């Protein structure tokens, strides 16, 4: 099966040319790969590093977004099997682990908060889950495995759980000189630790991570950052003893908790987590369908409609896409609703990526992405966030389509000679760093047949 998976996607990637995003066909793997190839090139045009050295993103992009970019490119490599960026990705991650290999980087003290550290940890966790190659010739001495780096982050963050204010929670900022966020307890920081805990629980089977995920969820829900309808709000302030909630709500905050609850539902088998995942997915509807003629098109409702999105905010809905797709891989029951949202949004994103080439170069073949997907074309708003949002929304269709194909595949006929499963078998028997559930490739032969059919 693994050989079929690699051979199938390798053939698709080798045959695929860069495809205009506006020409995306959401049910055709070759089309998705070709569009993703175009969008990946656009996103990486903002990054000047290479396989030998890391480079910070140009201003005004913050350090965290470089980590987010590498996470998007890890997804690109995984979904499309195009490994051409792999050494660049590995070098970038390892160059930012910091002296203690936990993504605490002294050079970024002025712009690193708990949520920034968490985003780099998400990328390391993805590398661990995907068994992403850590090339020996590119790995600095002393840098541990992707999994150990992720565990180091968790160990570093957990001691910052602050019970002296609001009986718990993580503040936005880490360092005293970033005083503006030392009292603010935001959903991104608390959700970030929640998601790290959930994914480490799935990777390692360690109950400690499950217990802490419970603790963070209970506190976040208890203070009202998550309400009974599963809306996720921006945060609360210890100056008011966390009695007042900032009602702003951004797409990626929902996605962080959605992915975490899906991971815990898979790991624990507890229906409570599956119910919470379904609730968060239902609550995410506020990030879709801005107008009657844009049903199921994703938007950043807190800022897009009024033109107040910052550089950071223009990347947010790409993370909702990433986390929705990731959640479906481990909790396939989410797939039907995610399918309606993401196929429509990916199509709209493709139509928004029709601007002049990066750098405003005149071109009849422009594929630069805009921000507002609901306008039916390119809106003139360009940037790294816009490129990443489109890339994440398109490339994850490959994984989503494979989950749907697996669910629709006929049950194999039982074999009278097949040995009975061992009563001691358990998903925990998987080696650390290996994904516990991999539904995408259980029907690889069926997919190959489908591919040949679509190409006929």
UniProtKB/TrEMBL annotation:
It catalyses: Random hydrolysis of (1->6)-alpha-D-mannosidic linkages in unbranched (1->6)-mannans. Residues 423-432 have a biased composition (Low complexity). Keywords: Glycoprotein, Glycosidase, Hydrolase, Signal. Pfam families: Glyco_hydro_76. Residues 409-435 are annotated as: Disordered. Residues 411-422 have a biased composition (Pro residues). The keyword Hydrolase applies. It is an enzyme of class 3 (hydrolase). Its EC number is 3.2.1.101. InterPro entries: 6-hairpin_glycosidase_sf (IPR008928), Glyco_hydro_76 (IPR005198), Mannan-1_6-alpha_mannosidase (IPR014480). Belongs to the glycosyl hydrolase 76 family. This is Mannan endo-1,6-alpha-mannosidase. It comes from Sporothrix stenoceras. The lineage of its organism: Eukaryota, Fungi, Dikarya, Ascomycota, Pezizomycotina.
